[in-house]
Amino acid sequence: MPPTQAMTSVYISSTRTDLKKHIRSVAETLERCGYAVEAMEKYHARDDRPKDACEADAAKCDIYVGIFAWRYGYVPVRDNPKRKSITELEYLAAAKKLRLIFLLAENVRWPSSLQDAKHMKDKGKRIRALRNRLKKEHWTGFFKSPDDLAKQVLTTIVQIESTKRVGSMDAIQEEVQKAAEFGPSFLTNLQQRFAELSSTEFIALRLGPTVWWNTRLHLASALAADFTEIRQFLILDAAKRVLLVTSPLEIRRALTKSQPKLEMAYLQCRAQAQPPFPTSEVDSVISAYPNALSSVFAGQQENAIKEVVTPTSLRELGIKQQGEALERPVNRPFSYAEIMQPRERYVVLVRDGEVDGVIDRVELASRMASDEVRV
């Protein structure tokens, strides 16, 4: 979706006298792509801009972009007991917002007149300390020129906006198992659970510590395919490692091929679940599921039919892989080139062992192409 529809606001924070060209390049690039940019020339490109106004603007924007070279910046005298610069105060004011940090690369030649280490009493101690803290607390990009910086900022924002959140199937897994095993009294929350996930495109499903049976995995996949907008399941192992990225329909197809009677039982439930429903169609299907299984399996109960799904058994089903995981530390960004390198359409972003989100490479490429045309 083009950013012009959402009018995402971006606050650019930086010292002005040394980075005027960089600020202008970033601001003009973002504005051409439909973003609302704050603090470009609002304070006449001065470093000694008003503290309260800057903090308020930084706090209210959607995205904070901090650009740092080798100057700590103007330190207001009033209402500033810790003697922090305007740029650091803006950074702190945006603590509840998405904060993106970009540092001038250390190997870039830079005028000595624009370096605190050359002409300030502290010999650059404060800016070095701030840069080091930012590198530890955030992922950081390193720029070499105004154009390089503008491209990095735009690419990073587009990637973040293109990253889809990942929901969890854990609650539904427990509800489905309880409902089908113990009867209608466990159906109370299922309608709400599916409603919560109905518009979530990517769902994580863990094979452990709670086990998945082939009967329940087929049922959950069929329900997801028929009643939600879930595009992909992220199958994780007990340690949350990504094993498989594929659609609910593909899992349903593979399990049906392995055991056709599972599909027969589900279709029988759908046929039996006629309106008006006592709660919802989903609940009606699940309520009828144990009897449907017993019917198509010649009187056998589910305990005699079910098989535990393991990473090995999942691979043996021949399910088509439609995604790939990329793992990085929390403070290292995913580059556009890295995201576009995998062959599969969906890229799962993993930071320090935790799934951070999913990017659809086709959508991202289309978005980037659109923005580059405008740039």
Question: Your description of this structure?
Answer:
There is one protein chain. By secondary structure, the chain is α/β, with parallel strands linked by helices. It folds into 2 domains: 7-162, Toll/interleukin-1 receptor homology (TIR) domain (Rossmann fold, 3-Layer(aba) Sandwich); 166-321, no CATH class. Helices cover 46% and strands 18% of the residues. It is built from 17 helices and 13 strands. The chain has helices at residues 3-6, 20-32, 51-60, 86-93, 116-119, 125-137, 146-162, 170-182, 190-197, 214-227, 248-258, 260-272, 281-296, 302-305, 311-316, 336-340, 361-374; strands spanning 9-14, 36-38, 63-68, 98-104, 140-143, 163-164, 166-168, 202-207, 232-237, 242-246, 323-328, 346-351, 354-360. Strands 2-1-3-4-5 form a 5-stranded parallel beta sheet, sandwiched between helices. It has a 4-stranded mixed beta sheet with strand order 6-13-12-11. Strand 9 (232-237) and strand 10 form a beta hairpin. Helix 8 crosses helix 13 (281-296).
- How many strand segments? 13
- Shape summary: elongated
Residues in helices, as a percent range: 40-55%
Q: CATH homologous superfamily of the largest domain?
A: Toll/interleukin-1 receptor homology (TIR) domain
Distance between the termini: 17 Å
Return Rg in Å: 27 Å
User: What's the architecture of the largest domain, going by CATH?
Assistant: 3-Layer(aba) Sandwich
Find the structural class using helix and strand composition: alpha/beta
Biggest sheet, open or closed, and with what strands and sense?
Answer: 5 strands, parallel
Defining traits:
Rossmann fold; 46% helix; five-stranded parallel sheet; four-stranded mixed sheet; 375 residues; alpha/beta; 2 domains
